[in-house]
Amino acid sequence: MQRLCGVQQGLQFCITGDEHSCRDTIGVQLETYRAATLHTRAILHVVAAKVLHRRCKVLARSEMILELLLGTRNPGKVAEIRKVLGDLDITFLTLENFPHVRSVKETGRTYEENARLKASSYAKDCGFWTLADDSGLEVKTLNGAPGVISARYAGGSASDQDRIDRLLENLSGTTKRAARFISVVALADPHSKIIKVEYGICEGTIIESPRGKSGFGYDPVFIPDAFNSTFAELPSDTKNVISHRGKACLAMHPFLRSLITPP
Hints:
- It is a single chain.
- The chain has helices at residues 2-16, 19-34, 38-64, 75-85, 111-126, 160-170, 236-242, 244-260, and strands at residues 67-70, 91-94, 129-139, 178-188, 194-206, 222-224.
- It is an alpha/beta fold.
- The protein has 2 domains: 2-64, no CATH class; 67-260, Maf protein (Alpha-Beta Complex).
- A 6-stranded mixed β-sheet has the order 2-1-3-4-5-6.
């Protein structure tokens, strides 16, 4: 039994990554191992297999999440997500790294359906952990429009300015301009299974004319509650904390950290 404990101690060093102690401790036991009974050797083999299995599971979980695909070709979204999750030990990939992969058609009726669809589809096509977002602007007086078609509000090939122009035109003459941004982020594993979904909401108001040069989409005409500046005027660090997408990604942050640093 003393021989068994000695080799077990050496194997335990392997679990913690102390390779020198592992080699030295087991090495000392080699002579006694040769003299061990067949029963003791069998026990040692079982112990070694369990130790190696545990070690491989730790390595697999910690290394797999190091590469995270962001399921978008929108540089604005990529910048925001990277900023919020930038303190994690992750190498970010985007769809620009996979030019052969076609963009997923957003056929869902809700933000969550679209986020799930994109995350699972891109994970299946690319074989990486994948984080995908679907988001939109909802204006109360327009019965929630543009909503899930926010990116296509003025047509499939419209620019940000085209979409803003249509929005302001539809709000012309009204003082009821309460609105909110909604974002849903979905995380899929490399086998395309959805693992986790998070939401983020930012309440605010639509102003009558664009202000600011930063951001993208409807940012120049949206002022978040408790602020006097539009999303396009706010510093990125501030926007990323209060925005819909920032909140959703911050909610996903602890789970991503748990994947990188297993218990």
